[in-house]
Give the backbone structure.
Amino acid sequence: MEGNQKNQIVIYGGSFNPPLNSHLYLAQNLLNNFKQISKIIFVPVNCKYKKEGLINNEDRFNMLNLACNNNKCFEVSRLEIDSDRPLYTIETLNYFKKIYFPNDVAYVMGSDNLKDLPNWNKFEEICQNFEGYIIKRKKDKIDSIISSNPLLFRYQKNFKIIEENVYENLSSTYTRNLIKQNKSIRYLLPEKVENYIYEHNLYK
């Protein structure tokens, strides 16, 4: 699948707990390097999703809006947080495919999730119908992950590998731990997000 003939919308799902400068840099890096991409849509997961330390939907949505509101190519969606249940990735992608038709819709994920992708709901539909931008995590060798799994190898042409390791150690978990220790989180996330965290006494 080629996205060169149309504008491409990239879906960036995650917990964003909290959203960091590294999340924003990753998205901007995609825009810089793939000219077919016209918009990145951040889709925070629903807090019904079972993940340790995940705070409520509204605070994460509000922080993402603060982080993204100065970039006309960034958008924040309420699709998953307004759902009465956690959505499968294929449901989210098909929703945006319908909304943005005839433009292409793609997704971004880390190489850690790529390993598990064949176990996802309607995995083959995802790979057949949507291009994936795969971000390297830690020391993962993405080519090896794809070539060693026959299911992933079948759809290798629909994966675009991003080798640049984006501030791997500066994770949201690391940031939350700094807050609990009453240490500075300056420069890890946008100043507006930092202020919001302190004003609402989050992650204590």
The domain at 8-167 is CATH 3.40.50.620 (Rossmann fold). The first strand starts at residue 8 and ends at 14. Strands lie at 8-14, 37-44, 74-76, 104-110, 131-135, 159-162.
